[in-house]
């Protein structure tokens, strides 16, 4: 399962969600404005920008279609 942390006014967050949907990757989207305590957790992982994507042990921030494709390929195995 992939978890995406983002914000409604974030273009990179929207692009990430859309790409996950296109690639049919099962995911959960959490708006950090509704869960403000999660920001400390994301910072503890070293992230300074949204979206933050957590896919198993891997995590990254920003819109990374290359990594989304890699996750999609792994999820089909």
UniProtKB/TrEMBL annotation:
**Record-linked Pfam families:** Glutaredoxin (PF00462)
All residue ranges annotated as the Glutaredoxin domain in the record: 2-59
InterPro entries found in the cross-reference section:
Glutaredoxin (IPR002109), Thioredoxin-like_sf (IPR036249)
Q: Which domain of life does the UniProt lineage start with?
A: Bacteria
The molecule here is called Ribonucleoside-diphosphate reductase class Ib glutaredoxin subunit
Native species of this protein? Herbiconiux ginsengi
């Amino acid at each position: 399962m992939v978890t995406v942390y983002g914000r409604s006014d974030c273009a990179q967050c929207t692009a990430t969600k859309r790409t996950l949907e296109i690639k049919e990757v099962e995911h959960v989207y959490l708006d950090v404005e509704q869960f403000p305590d999660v920001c400390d957790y994301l910072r503890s992982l070293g992230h300074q920008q949204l979206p933050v994507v957590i896919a198993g042990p891997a995590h990254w921030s920003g819109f990374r279609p290359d990594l989304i494709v890699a996750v999609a390929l792994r999820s089909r195995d």
